[in-house]
Amino acid sequence: MVQGGVIRVVFAGLLLFGCGGGEGLFKRPETPEQPPVVAVQPDETVIRPRLRPADRAAGAVTKPVPVARPEQDLGKTIVALGLLDRDGLWLRTPLVTTEVKGRVYYDKTGTAANVLLLPLQGENTAGSQLSLAAMQVLGIPLTELAKVQVFVR
Question: Which end of the chain is more exposed for a tag (fewer CB within 10 A), N or C?
């Protein structure tokens, strides 16, 4: 019984080998010949950027200069945990009348967070509502009323 099975497998293999003409079973496919790489010498017509004197020194590395962002100090406000109806970093405050990008600084921890400033009805001396995520970034305990500095960009 084993001999009959082996014979069938060998016979099936020969049939398949004959159908394809034997191509691809024992030969690698031929790769097209690659054209030779030719190095081109630059001439006067090639436009190249000029090196600055600082770049010519070996190992000269320039550090990026931070760009000062113009900010306007809106003042200080007392913040409490705001409603959980909106995700992200935001501050609802009566210090703004339209949605603007801003920054909040918490003096106790010395941390700041970029937030979206949202308008809140009320007097400028009224308190503000800070998002849960912003309170966590600033390190403000959730049950605390904290005084923060508000800046608008």
Answer: N
Local structure of 80: helix, strand or coil = strand
Pairing of strands 128-130, 100-106: unpaired
Burial pattern 93-130, b for ≥16 Cβ within 10 A else e, equals bbbbeeeeebbbbbeeeeeebebbbbebeeeeeebbbb
Establish how many alpha carbons lie within 13 A of residue 83's alpha carbon, considering only the half-sphere containing its beta carbon: 6
Helix (H, G, I), strand (E, B) or coil at 113: strand
Per-residue pLDDT tens for 103-150?
999 999 999 999 999 999 888 788 899 999 999 999 999 999 999 999
